[in-house]
């Protein structure tokens, strides 16, 4: 794999809309199908800093961050590329954009993602409720620790 993390540009939007929709459908199987609309990527990342993971010319993931809040809002990796270090690379890519501690929310039913964050040293701080279900607020005190 020729993994590269780069800044978002407008020509990425169509591919990112598709990736966001597909990964959400696969990862959030407990939600109604009506929750998955292609254009929600635009709304859900508006005003955020977005970095894109590419393998050659193929977009395989992204991360969106609210730097002023030290908050990671979204991180999505195409199913075919999960468990290959892409998520870890995306998390590392934002270290210059945020100050520690950094936070993110993860839906409790998304058990694969919950385990991924715990493995990386993220600490569960709180539970909350959103329209999509119960979420865990995770916090990372220092640099990413994935090995």
From TrEMBL:
All copies of domain N-acetyltransferase, residue ranges: 3-147
Record's keyword annotation contains Hydrolase: no
Entries under Gene3D superfamilies matching the protein: 3.40.630.30
Keyword annotations from UniProtKB, A to Z: Acyltransferase, Transferase
A molecular-function term among this protein's GO annotations: acyltransferase activity, transferring groups other than amino-acyl groups
This protein's record includes keyword NAD: no
CDD domains recorded: NAT_SF (cd04301)
InterPro entries: Acyl_CoA_acyltransferase, Bact_Acetyltransf, GNAT_dom
Pfam families with a match to the protein in the record: Acetyltransf_10
Name this polypeptide is given: N-acetyltransferase domain-containing protein
Annotated organism of origin: Dyadobacter helix
Lineage: Bacteria, Pseudomonadati, Bacteroidota, Cytophagia, Cytophagales
């Amino acid at each position: 794999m020729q993994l590269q993390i780069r800044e978002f540009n407008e020509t990425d939007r169509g591919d990112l809309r598709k990736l966001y929709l597909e990964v959400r459908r696969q990862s959030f199987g407990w939600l109604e199908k009506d929750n998955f609309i292609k254009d929600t990527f635009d709304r859900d990342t508006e005003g955020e800093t977005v970095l894109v993971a590419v393998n050659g010319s193929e977009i395989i993931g992204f991360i969106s961050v609210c730097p002023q809040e030290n908050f990671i809002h979204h991180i999505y990796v195409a199913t075919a590329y999960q468990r290959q270090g892409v998520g870890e690379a995306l998390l590392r890519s934002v270290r210059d954009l945020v100050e520690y501690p950094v936070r993110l929310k993860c839906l409790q039913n998304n058990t694969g993602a919950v385990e991924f964050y715990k493995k990386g040293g993220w600490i569960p701080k709180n539970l909350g409720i959103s329209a999509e279900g119960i979420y865990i607020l995770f916090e990372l005190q220092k640099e990413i620790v994935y090995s």
